[in-house]
Amino acid sequence: MKYVKILMVTMLLLSISGCSANKAETNNNVTLDTQTENSNIKDNDMADTDVTKQQSDDLTNISDEKIESNTEKSEKNMKLTLNEKEYNVTLNNNSTIDDISKLLPMNLKMKRYAGHEYYASLSDTPTIEGVTTTSDIKAGGIYYWDGWNAFVINFEDTNIAPYKVVHIGDVNGDIVSDLEKSGDNITVNVQ
Fold this sequence. Notes:
- By secondary structure, the protein is α+β, with helices and mostly antiparallel strands.
- The protein has helices at 2-26, 28-72, 95-101, 175-181, and strands spanning 73-82, 85-92, 106-113, 117-121, 136-137, 141-145, 150-154, 158-159, 166-172, 185-190.
- It folds into 2 domains: 2-71; 74-190, Cyclophilin, CATH 2.40.100.20.
- β3 and β4 form a beta hairpin.
- α1 (2-26) runs antiparallel to α2 (28-72).
- The longest helix is centred in the first third of the chain and has 45 residues, at 28-72.
- It is globular and about 35 Å long.
- Mean pLDDT is 75; it is low at 1-42, 44-53 and 55-71.
């Protein structure tokens, strides 16, 4: 719509410029001034059009970024309860999370593993087909690993290559320090 308006304004200015130039031809004294003025108008018009197009492109890029970031996050909520503390989880948006959400609420007996995570097997196997996976694990992140059909909460950044997991979401709050201090086994309620 902006391009149509820009085009209409440009055409109007060009037609006005054309009229001014025709009148200027009848008066030799005014011809040089009018042509210079018309040239300045056209140059300014083109500069304004370039700026407007750049601004429009910038807005499109910003909109695309907002759309991408909105599609990455789910509207579903998850809450974890550990040692009588409740933590909210910001979920990503993918089919694995949709399937795990159907299993809620869950009371998971989780085991400490490899000095960076707690895990528990799920009662049903969620899909990972078409879902982005990662080897870069972040503290406070929740992941699903299909190798053990495991729901995983990490408390230390690590890289698990060559293995890959589905990033489910991130815990809001300092669950990391609670997990670091916990023993070999914990119970986590997931809702």
